[in-house]
Amino acid sequence: MRRTRKPGCHVGQVRHDGRPAGEVASELGLPTRRRQAEKLVIGRREWVMLPEFDAGPFHAKTDSGARSSSIHAEQIVLSDDCSSVGFFTRDHYGRRKWCEMKVGGVSRVKSSTGEAKPRIWVETELELPGGFRWRARLTLANRSRMLCSMLLGRRALSGYFLIDTARDHLMGMFDARGGH
């Protein structure tokens, strides 16, 4: 028997009580990275926010064929000591947002055309409608010619999600301001 979830079923307040996150998530019935843990079913496209920057919503394509994830970035500026990066990104409504964050590293990423290029990556928190949050690495790339300004690859999806490739936006929508 298959259980279905309603969009927005994972809403909660953040509390730190000293217990391991996996233990708390299991108690609350939330997805965890453990193998046997229940997974959220998401669509081939979902809405995603970047809560650390109050940015979004972004139209994100889920792609289990891609190893890494990326976000649209323009006018990328690396600090003199290469420890932080700043860039403009655009949400689904075309609003430009300046983001500054610590550089996680630089990786060689092979694009869908087969060309490998070095890309800066950052780690940040992502949020789905309904409040589910998790941390993921995002490489910075110009995705202005792409339908979706964000791509979520295997590394970001692994352990938390199963993808229903026939459906979109199973987690629901954010309102026009990006809230729940």
From TrEMBL:
UniProt cross-references to SUPFAM superfamilies, sorted A to Z: Acid proteases
Alphabetized InterPro entries for the sequence: Asp_endopeptidase (IPR008503), Peptidase_aspartic_dom_sf (IPR021109)
Signal peptide positions (record): none
Retropepsin-like aspartic endopeptidase domain boundaries: 41-168
Cross-referenced PANTHER family: ATP-DEPENDENT ZINC PROTEASE DOMAIN-CONTAINING PROTEIN-RELATED (PTHR38037:SF2), ZN_PROTEASE DOMAIN-CONTAINING PROTEIN (PTHR38037)
Name the UniProt record assigns to this protein: 30S ribosomal protein S6 modification protein
Annotated source species: Haloferula helveola
Lineage, broadest ranks: Bacteria, Pseudomonadati, Verrucomicrobiota, Verrucomicrobiia, Verrucomicrobiales
